[in-house]
Amino acid sequence: MKIERQKILELVYASIEPINEQRESKDDKLELEEETHLFGRESKLDSLGLVTLIIDIEQSLVEELGLEVSLTDEKAMSQERSPFRDVKSLVDYICSLEV
Amino acid sequence: METDKEVMIITGTRKGIGRYLAEHYLGKGYIVVGCSRGESALESGSYEHFCLDVADESAVKKMVSSVYQKYKRIDILINNAGIASMNHVLLTPLSSVENVFKTNVYGTFLFSREAAKLMSKNKYGRIVNFVTIAVPLKLEGEAIYAASKSAIEKFTQVMAKEVASFNITCNSVGPTPIETDLIRGVPKERLQKLVESLAVKRFGTFEDVVNVIDFFISRSSDCITGQTIYLGGG
Q: Total structural domains in chain B?
């Protein structure tokens, strides 16, 4: 089944929003853009924040699209460049999964 | 169907301690979701049963996800499902090691991971794992069983640290021998000798185990995590 990229992008943004709601300062919020870093030095998320985001996206994929996928399987962990580095790479990675 | 009742998953509920725990917590007003390889004869409006192998990742994910989708909460996980293998190391086939580790370690890991993901959304959870008195007593003939339970104990301690910020606690209970199918193959004299080596010289009971689990899952026990309580003073 081919996963529609726009839907996944919207779903990722929807999962970022509750994180932003908990942040008061505008500087601390994550921009809803494909270039937004999720992982690494330039990310506004700490490791726990990234874990929370991944869990939330996995659950949304099940609830809204009926897709049972694990975003942290060996394929993701063995990629030279982490699929979690920014929104674009994460969305591309989800779209590449065979479901 | 959201609910005000606490929702509990117990693995290995077809018989033995698991069955007892399911009935006990149903009696206390919990919604209990259980699983085992075979069908369960337990009937209750608040009980739901899944037939699965606890080491089957896909089946575990589906079960835990469906519980959350139905009730919008998972409060407690009791990883009770377990198998034993009593044998001398030199006579133990690799297939026994694989089976014991799959059910005991992989099963505990898979349910803990999937449940904790969803517990984290509600910022609350209690996970209780089963270890064994064979770990501190280093019982001969139980190398593989004790090794698998030792893995669970360490897993529990590390996971407790990793999920503490989600207000999820992880603890272990280590029962003394209880007269269930798990120890059916162990010679009586051997069990008697084991019991004699304990501070409390008697077999464990289901009530002893429930007493510890009640403590771990209490709302007041939010500062109790990464701990193992061995029964009988082993």
A: 1
